[in-house]
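Dear support,

I submitted the protein below through the web form. The confirmation email said the job was done, but the results page showed an empty box. After a refresh the structure appeared. I'm attaching both so you can tell me whether what I see now is the final result or a partial one.
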Amino acid sequence: MKFYTFLMIASFGVATASAQIHPAKTDTIFFEDFNGKSLDRSKWNVEVTGNTVNNEQQAYVDSISTLYLAHNKEAAGAKKGALVIKAVYHPGYSSKEQRHYDFLSGRINTRSKFEFTYGTASARMKMAAGAGAWPAFWALSEGKWPDCGEIDIMETVGDSSWVSHALHGPGYFGNTPLAYRAFFPKGTDVTQWHIYSVDWSANALVFKVDDKITYTVTREMVEKYGKWAFDNPKFIILNFALGGGYPNGVNKLKEPYFGLSQTSVDRIKAGQAKVFVDWVLVTQSKP
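What the results page shows now:
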């Protein structure tokens, strides 16, 4: 028995060493480094909506005031250029749906332009903190929500000490049981550059921050609550929401706006509420 155990350990060591010498090969199936003069509309759709969900306080618009590419000093720390999603104070804005908002922001997606099933999706990002500031990097499928399945790779609601990961699907949505707060090491926070990623396979989703595993969800875990909704193609979304149900569930604020603090409002008015995205990468293992 002892000898058998030793062989198992030794074999594992050899296998690990072999894997390190011969890492799995991958293909890049999507890459965006935001190094052009303007957003590449062949890759990205800009969403325009004034009928928001979750009691969010912003309207999404297609404007260089809320979505633009930065270079040099403003994009400091980015490899080349960076996408900036900026929250703007615009009191009394009326959407085409005749909804009224005091804030504008940006949301882009790759729907119908790039969709994938399984692989690793990553983004290098940094963002402003502030209660109710709600940036997200996520993936969604066509079809009725939540049955289509949603992968929240990174969300933050303004507490700079952590980001969250979550899954939504039939039987596990809204205040989903499949969620996790990943806290940063001491001296690090959400306002610094980090790489957020998910390794998505047929039987599990493994979330990482700066290449360190923070949360793993298996098919078995999901199926305790409902149908596994992660075998279908998904598109990527980047957005910057303000206030709403998730932030309010954390900060309990109702004034001056639902889920959004006065400090955050002041930061938006000062033009300091920005999300920076250095790059987005999706890879798949070669057969």
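Response: this is the final, complete result; the empty box was a page-load delay. Residues 93 and 101 are 5 Å apart (CA to CA).
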